[in-house]
Design goal:
The chain is an alpha/beta fold. Helices cover 55% and strands 11% of the residues. It has an eight-stranded mixed sheet, sandwiched between helices. Helix 13 links the parallel strand 6 and strand 7. Helix 2 crosses helix 17, helix 9 crosses helix 12 and helix 13 runs parallel beside helix 16. It starts with a helix and ends with a helix. Bound molecules: adenosine-5'-triphosphate (ATP) and magnesium ion (MG). The site of magnesium ion (MG) has 5 residues, from helix 2. InterPro entries: ArsA/GET3_ATPase-like (IPR025723), ATPase_ArsA/GET3 (IPR016300), P-loop_NTPase (IPR027417). GO terms for molecular function: ATP binding; ATP hydrolysis activity. This is ArsA family ATPase. Pfam families: ArsA_ATPase (PF02374).
């Protein structure tokens, strides 16, 4: 895809902004290329000398494949130097990757903040804890964002690139700290103590699935068992509550500070662009820093108007003189040429549509917002070589 001066300038500007961030978060609708973009941004920063961690919460575990490592677990792994050497790349920094397992993150939180091992085990074994850590909306996202905070504070990495989950509610992840502050505030305890909760009559409060669900989940136990388990849960878990609010504020501060930048990833079609603009408005309203838009899978314009205007007979003659060995001799060359021209003009149409929806998107964004394009490659990106190709397109290195 030919790059204009504007595009090259946008890439440089984006690269400079990223070089000043400690955290970059890729957001966007499902399937647009968030995981790929996170890896590409991480790769570029590692090549330029930073120690980078790419954190994904992608359940499809695609990141591991594209980075050329066997599997990705909740422990971070460095991408071996040989992988880069195979491609003739010499990273000046380091590239690490890990998968953020939500349940695991929440357990770690308990392990870290429980006052003693006895309390820790009592919480981890408690059925109410299991309910809270797996079913309460926002708790797992919260645990994930706290893990991010922990890693940033550890100073182990110069840059952490965070991938977000494939949901239409990707922004939940960002709202999780605030939601959890709410959830663990005294209202939560009030809700649990509320008359009628244990008999299943109250259905409001912070438990978004409703009391009936809680009661159904826990209802296999007798009232006595339930009460004593709840008692243990409240006594032990509340010992963690105190620090929660303060740490959640820490996460919110990190996300809002100039240490963190957001990248909105989108496909070029007008519907997805609308969703991307919605993400942008929301981030902007919350005073979060949006560093760039990445438009992924853009149809490149590669057929000239002269070629499209060719009479099928002329193309047929070119195809059969000398005959292409791969072509079936039974095929009528003119029919084939007609199909090829039709195909090329459809492709050209897609390229035109993409260009116009990207232009309309640009009109609705601040003039200074970098809009970066990655072409539609003819195959999935599932190797470091593929990521490097996307990097070349995104950052304009040829
Ligand atoms: N420019 C591209 N050209 C061709 N294939 C691409 C391109 N970008 C991404 N892909 C492929 O599209 C698929 C989806 O990309 P990716 O996993 O990055 O999207 P995602 O936004 O993270 O998806 P999800 O919302 O499911 O997490 C992957 O198989 C990836 O290899
Ligand atoms: Mg993903």
């Amino acid at each position: 895809m030919a790059r204009t001066d504007d595009e090259a300038q946008a890439s440089r500007y984006f690269e400079r902004v990223i070089s000043e961030r400690q955290v970059v978060i890729c957001v966007g609708s499902g399937g647009v290329g968030k995981t790929t973009s996170s890896a590409v941004i991480g790769l570029n920063a590692a090549l330029s000398g930073r120690r980078v961690l790419v954190m994904t919460i992608d359940p499809a575990r695609r990141l591991a494949n594209s980075l050329g490592i066997e599997a990705l677990g909740s422990e971070m792994q460095q991408i071996p130097l040989e992988r880069f050497e195979e491609l003739g790349l010499e990273p000046k920094g380091e590239l690490w990757a890990m998968m953020l397992d939500m349940k695991d993150s929440f357990d770690r939180l308990v392990q870290r903040h429980a006052p003693d091992p006895k309390t820790r085990d009592a919480i981890l074994d408690n059925r109410f804890y299991h309910y809270f850590s797996t079913s309460l909306a926002g708790t797992q996202e919260y645990a994930a964002s706290e893990r991010l905070h922990e890693l940033v504070q550890s100073g182990e990495f110069d840059l952490i690139v965070l991938d977000t989950p494939p949901t239409t509610h990707a922004l939940d992840f960002l709202e999780a700290p605030e939601r959890l502050v709410d959830a663990v505030s005294s209202r939560a305890l009030q809700w649990l103590y509320k008359p009628g909760v244990l008999s299943g009559r109250s259905g409001m409060g912070i438990v978004s699935l409703g009391t009936n669900y809680v009661m159904r989940t826990l209802g296999k136990f007798t009232g006595g068992e339930l009460l004593s388990e709840l008692g243990v849960f409240l006594k032990t878990f509340s010992s963690l509550f105190e620090g929660f609010e303060e740490r959640a504020r820490g996460v919110i501060d990190l996300l809002k500070s100039s240490r963190t930048g957001f990248v909105v990833v989108t496909a070029p079609d007008s519907l997805t662009v609308e969703e991307a603009l919605y993400f942008y408005e929301k981030l902007d309203r919350d005073a979060l820093h949006v560093d760039a838009f990445i438009v992924n899978r853009v149809h490149p314009r590669w057929v000239s108007e002269e070629a499209l205007a060719l009479p099928p007979e002329a193309l047929a003659a070119a195809l059969s003189e000398p005959p292409l060995p791969a072509l079936d001799p039974a095929l009528n060359p003119t029919d084939l040429a007609e199909h090829l021209l039709e195909n090329a003009s459809q492709f050209e149409l897609r390229a035109t549509q993409d260009a116009s929806s990207i232009a309309l998107m640009g009109d609705r964004l601040p003039k200074t917002m970098p809009i970066l394009k990655v072409p539609y490659f003819n195959r999935d990106i599932h190797s470091l070589a593929g990521l490097n190709k996307a990097r070349t397109a995104l950052f304009g290195y040829f």
